[in-house]
Amino acid sequence: MTLNHWMKAGIGLSCALIWSCPTLAAMTAEKNFGLEVKATGQSEDDRDLGTREGGDVNGLGLDLRPWVYGERGNWSAYAMGQAVTATDIIETDTLRQSTDETQASSNAREPDKSYLAMREFWIGYSGLTQYPGEQLRLGRQRLRNDDGMWRDTHIEALNWGFDTTLLRANLGVAERFSEYRTDLTELAPEDKDRLHLFGDVSTQWQPGHWVGVRAHHTQDDGKLANPGETVDELDKTRTGDLTWLGLEANSDAYNFRNTNTLNYWGSVTWLTGNRDTLNTSTVNGEQVATGQQSGDVNAWATDLGLRWRLDPNWQVGAAYAHGSGGGGDDGSGNYEQTGLESNRSNFTGTRSRIHRFGEAFRGELGNLQAMTLFTSWQLQDDYDASLVYHKFRRIDGDQNIGSSGINAVVEDNGVNRPLIQGEKDLGQEMDLVVTKYFKQGLLPAALSQSIDEPSALVRLRGGVFKPGDAYGKEADSYMHRAFVDVVWRF
What we know:
This protein is mostly beta strands. It contains four helices and 22 strands. The chain has an 18-stranded antiparallel β-barrel. Strands 14-15 form a two-stranded antiparallel sheet. A two-stranded antiparallel ribbon has the order 18-19. A hairpin with an 8-residue loop joins β4 and β5.
């Protein structure tokens, strides 16, 4: 059997165990279950910057997430479902949002206003070592690292993790087999037949200061169309085997509870491997394959940041990120991320996780330079707020950037392109994220004391993006994306 078959069989077994084990069923029925209710209002203006028809989103949505958890000895199991209904196709999940939003239109994976889904289902075993915080987990689970720039997604995986006082580590394998949604029956092309192998380890070399190494490899076994074959929106247009190697250091900067006067984070990543890209042309209104372009990849990226605490409540900071671009016609110097990232983290020092490259622009670190200034305020467990400014440029003005929340099409010398050739200025953005937490919320006071996270919150997330010269003179002068989320946890 191949590794894919073993993973599919293991995930099927995990589902069966979750629902068939009478001990777990009894335990979860007694106390280990709950419901998260999320109501969202969204306002979004022309993600295409006025270069296409439509592009606006205005609506209300309701997202229900029931969950059940049980454990016995070293064994544990967890499952979370989801039921969504909305007045428009709005964002109901901050994970994988940059992919889902753009792919829904470009890949004909038409989302519905209402759907059912399974977010997580896994079994875990904690008896392989004597370390506290060690667990082997199999099934659809959330994989996440602190900066959200390598992994932050729900995916089928076998992951062995450690989270101790002096050591944090992960070793695992993952592949996406389904979206587990009633409305999306096809995977995005970049997810098809793509296997992820990953590992990381970091240690606290002195109190509050971490240093570590990370590695990630993707093996893409998908096939590209042969010359002359028609290519539709669900066909793969790129394959390749890629390896990321990275070094990182931080002062526990992503932990909003730390009280350091000065916080820092820094990472550098090398990307190597090979990419095969499908070339197409338009024939009688259809895309037809004309051949493939292959090339080696040699790229790098870095993310640096400093945050200074002015007093117990106020912080200010600056950050810089650079994902290389260039390398000629084959784009061998273009950096790309792993495909499992969300780019959301607590980099401003608050409990609220914010998109590292803009709540409206939502860039990916590929042929991109991002300069960021921010200030944040946090009042114990009651309120927090962040005001963030970004300036975006592309490294190579003749290469495209990675995916983003903008899908404009501009005319450049009679040719439709996503960006004007030679122009590097992508634009600038201002973000505001404000949250009110209710520790006791809608729960009885006695119950809320046993819960670490707030039982309810109201959050405003908004960004205004002003496009630069790379989007041409015909683009709108600005676009906005704003959300109001109300969350209850029962």
